[in-house]
Amino acid sequence: MAIKRSEKRMAKKAARNARKASRGNRSEKTRRAIGDFIIQKRSIVPNMITMSNMTMGFFAIILAGRGDARSLAVAGIMVFLGTLFDAVDGAVARAMHVESPVGVQLDSLADGIAYGIAPAVIAYQAYLKGLPSGGTIIDFGMIIALIYPICAIYRLARFNIGAGEDDHTRFKGLPSPAAGLIIASIPVLSIPDFLSVLKMPWHIPWQLFIVIYVAVSLLMVSRVDYSKVVPEIYRIAGKAAVILTVILGILMLGLLSVWFVFSFMMFYTIMGVLIYCIRLVRRKFGKAAA
User: Fold this and answer.
1) How many CB atoms lie within 10 A of CB 145?
2) 182-224: per-residue pLDDT in tens?
3) Residues 85 and 58: beta-carbon distance below 8 Å
4) Tally of structural domains, the chain
5) Are 224 and 276 in contact (CB under 8 A)?
6) Which of 24, 47, 116, 223 has the smallest number of Cβ neighbours within 10 A?
7) Cα-based distances in Å from 65 to 15, 68, 73, 196
8) Do the domain assignments include residue 25?
9) Are 186 and 209 in contact (CB under 8 A)?
10) DSSP code of 136?
11) pTM for this prediction
12) Which residues pair with 172 in a beta bridge?
């Protein structure tokens, strides 16, 4: 009788061990399957960062639609936040070795929303909707506002076509993120207590805003050369200079907030035009001398 009980206990123990081993095998298979899925689908990570840029642009459009000064300022900040996502998605894709044509197209479409549509909506609500309507549904402000997205989308399409010939050091035409930041940051500067130690509101007249708006739009589709800032600094002064520049930029951003963003982007835009004009003059005189 005792022998039978012992045999039963041993049989139950063996059955439990078999079930544990089976569960262990299933768990191991599950872990391997999850690991394989993550490896195969790791491109999701940079794509999600790209979609975050699009999300910021979408939120900026919704907020700008409210029309009040505070919402327009927050919309401008959303465009800036989207720029941070846009700055790292490509680097993450390269670091994870998951660069793909899908990622390139996603990046372009996200930029079209964040830097093509959102700044135009912000500009219209902040400055252009007050222009005369002429008694029609489509007012004059809408016509002017349309210039920017047309140029931005065309510029993105042109960039995609020439992506294979990109030397990673220069842009042809003003980059859409720089243009978008210039336009979207202007309404933020009109609120003196908004994210800045400089309590200095800047209300520019609508006439000057239209000049800036149209000029920035046309520069996007121009043939003016613009350097890629980080690669250019690395080429001239090395890695230490890049690190120092990033640290200085973060400090200036913390101190001056949107004033620093606007000032830097305007400086970058104007310097690109000046350097391009100087090169044209030198080329012209060089040919004349030859």
Assistant:
1) 24
2) 999 999 888 766 555 556 677 888 899 999 999 999 999 998 9
3) no
4) 1
5) yes
6) 223
7) 67, 9, 12, 24
8) no
9) yes
10) S
11) 0.80
12) 225
